[in-house]
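Repro:
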Amino acid sequence: MSEPLRIGIAGITGRMGREITALARNDERIRLVGGVSRREPADDLFTDLLVTSDLDRLLLEIDLLIDFTLPEATSSIAAAASRARVPLLCGVTGLGATDIAALESAAEHIPVHWSRNLSLALPLVADLVRQLAAALADFDVEITETHHRGKLEAPSGTALLLAEAVAAGRSQALDNHAIYGRYGVSPRTPGDIGIHALRAGSLPGEHTILFAGDEEELRITHRALSRRAFAQGAIEAAIVLAARPIGLIQT
């Protein structure tokens, strides 16, 4: 039997870091070494783990780093992982052009996977949406996403991923067709891809894609019932990424 994959988590004491920690402790395929946090953990979940503010120290002890921090940390985390030659799984959303460029630069030296939604089902939904957009070329498309009140960016990374799938299915550039909400006099024009964000309560995430024709409608909804869906997906993606060659995967 091969040795467990040694992983670390940047943002280990955050919401997603805690979920991954809880699952990782019971997964024989991996060994959670510890993670990076700006604050000391206050409960037993992190007992016997290396929790430090020194990323370089953690990178010396692990085979793969999972990043669930914030966009402003992405560039420095990617650079550190690249220097240490440690594969990087980035689950941070809301990245700008500079952040993505940092991931691309790191991917010249290590395997990098940037995912805007790590749930197991969402990639299948995106593939289906791409096929439907091509097959139902004359149907109107609207995407609605709902997240908890603390979600920072709007629209969500997943909503953009799904909108990109629609545009790809129709061989379009999303920037030329995306409509982010509507206000006042705003008639729909052919080819519009509507994207609408709701923020309320504590729902981890729900995305609905509406394909509407004159005589029929089709709705696809993906609903995350807890953050554990993303945590399990992160573990599965980490195991796959560790065996991949150098380069960038974006989902």
